[in-house]
Amino acid sequence: MKKPVLLVMAAGMGSRYGGMKQIDPVGPNGEIIIDYSLYDAYRAGFRTVIFVIKHEIEEAFHAAIGERISKIMDVKYAFQQLDVLPEGFAVPENREKPWGTCHAVLSAKDLIDGPFAVINADDYYGPEAFRVMYDYLSSHQDGEIYDYCMVSYLLKNTVSENGSVARGVCVANPDGTLQSVTERTRIEKREDKISYSEDNGNTWVDIDGNTPVSMNLWGFNKSFVREAEERFAGWLRENLPKNPLKCEYFLPLVVSELIEEKKAKVTILHSTDKWYGVTYREDKPTVVAAIKNKIEEGIYPADLWEEEK
To answer: How far from 146 is each of 67, 140, 141, 222, 278, CA to CA, in Å?
Structure first.
């Protein structure tokens, strides 16, 4: 059985954040968020990482993270570019937004030949998430139906104090597998409640803070790449006419379709760790303080990579 590899989605340039947040330091020695994820992933057993980036940030990304990580892990790069589309499709005029998380995974299809975990570059997931993910991917293979997994977090542990966030809202079956996941692209803290809007804030629906949500920490086998690729052209045909500049091909969409078609089961793994992320520039001090606390608690060494060199 092939060893699981880690795929890091880092092509987004941080439009809401107003800068390239993937390489903005949060640790005492210039460490960035992904350093801590990679450290946790390495301790869990991952030895190969695939970074999905844009060509435009390649040099900066190499300097900020790639060269350092390549000393302890096998580092590979894939490039998420707007014009990589199925035959017969072209980039709509004035489109700048990437095609979404599922397209990011497809960008790395030539590098994936076994089980893999997917994470966002700008999210802090915590050590527990990588342990349970690596253990699952190391001990499960596709049978008659695809055998995938995800790590869920409590919604209240994942919202920002500084604006809206996008989350995959999960519904679980009694057996602990995923029934459905729905991408809510605008979830906000509003007074003492958490709510989401689907009409640019005109109306709001309250949502329980204990609702499990996906933070894009998925575990797949190679079968997922094949399914996502086969569905991409149909998705483009359906969505380009409706929203040519902003429609996105999200991972939860394909996951939900595979569950509905009874082609896949997705086991929900749990993390009690608090998620941290820098969606907005104002989020950064909270993340810096959290990392400082974790170093003081002994979860991380002050010089993250010193002992691994």
So the answer is: 35, 10, 8, 10, 33
- Give which of 229, 240, 249 is closest to 95, Cα–Cα: 240
CB atoms within 10 A of CB 212: 21
Helices (DSSP H) in the chain: which residue ranges?
33-44, 58-61, 67-69, 101-107, 127-139, 222-239, 251-260, 284-296
Nearest CA among 154, 186, 179 for reference residue 255: 179
Tokens found for residue 125: 């997931």
Per-residue pLDDT of the chain (309 residues; tens, 9 = 90+): 899 999 999 886 444 444 555 567 899 988 889 999 999 999 999 999 999 998 888 887 888 787 889 989 999 999 999 999 999 999 999 998 889 999 999 999 999 999 999 999 888 999 999 999 999 999 999 999 999 999 999 999 899 888 898 898 999 999 999 999 888 989 999 888 999 999 988 999 999 999 999 988 999 999 999 999 999 999 999 999 999 999 999 998 999 999 999 999 999 998 878 888 877 888 889 999 999 999 999 999 999 887 654
Q: Can you state the angle between helices 251-260 and 222-239, rounded to 10 degrees?
A: 100
According to DSSP, residue 15 is labeled T
- Smallest CA-to-CA distance from 103 within 79, 76, 119, 133 is with 79
Q: What is the pTM of this model?
A: 0.91
29: left (phi over 0), alpha (psi -120 to 50) or beta: alpha
The one-letter amino acid at 200: N
Amino acid at 223: S
Secondary structure (DSSP) of 110-161: GG--S-EEEEETTEE--HHHHHHHHHHHHH----SSEEEEEEEEEGGGT--T
